[in-house]
Amino acid sequence: xxxxxxxxxxxxxxxxxxxxxxxxxxxxxxxxxxxxxxxxxxxxxxxxxxxxxxxxxxxxxxxxxxxxxxxxxxxxxxxxxxxxxxxxxxxxxxxxxxxxxxxxxxxxxxxxxxxxxxxxxxxxxxxxxxxxxxxxxxxxxxxxxxxxxxxxxxxxxxxxxxxxxxxxxxxxxxxxxxxxxxxxxxxxxxxxxxxxxxxxxxxxxxxxxxxxxxxxxxxxxxxxxxxxxxxxxxxxxxxxxxxxxxxxxxxxxxxxxxxxxxxxxxxxxxxxxxxxxxxxxxxxxxxxxx
Length: 290
What we know:
The protein has a domain at 30-90 and 102-191: Transposase Inhibitor Protein From Tn5, Chain A, domain 1, CATH 3.90.350.10. It contains six helices and eight strands. The protein has helices at residues 30-46, 64-72, 176-198, 210-231, 241-259, 267-278; strands spanning 54-56, 76-81, 87-90, 104-107, 118-124, 129-140, 147-156, 162-169.
């Protein structure tokens, strides 16, 4: 059999006559549509009580579709880019005189970040780590918006190894300290859900209907806040959540036992027994009654 002739290579580039695609006009994924709907519901409830400006998103969503979803909600996004993101500086040269003005300038070199953009330089002498923070307005070919980029560079002075983190916001006026501070709040939110699942039964709910799930989730997160409020008490500030639960479980058991007595015990005995039982199972025991 004769071998079929090889097809000619397909033409490189986009089809003739096609225009530039608008990076703001995109089709959101089902997940981003769900997030957008949830954000708009939350904003409607918060309306007139708190002026919400920023939406902090996980680094996995540091992309243009997520940016457009947040901007459609009327908010600015704060998130994290990949370490090797192909960021470029805006073009600052003269117009060539023909064609569309050039938009992109030089690409970023993470090993040689420009000194004029350096905002902070500090050294942790205990860990021998130098931390340098840069802030600059940059572009990305896959993003429609100019980005306020904050690069946190850490250098091990003993080994010379360098690592960095790229944070960004669509608010180009936001100071680098606030970008870092606001992004750090994301971890506090994760800690709330971690405590709600680990200590207050959020992941133990077997409900499948909307209202019971809503009530269970809200009760779990409420208990996180309530337990932290109890720990602000000077007498409980060193107690862990497990200590706190053991303490109140013990008090409940004592109360039920005293109900079974034929005669009401005196107040001193009740207090002494309560503290004794409440400390069972605790890691950090409270001060006992003499």
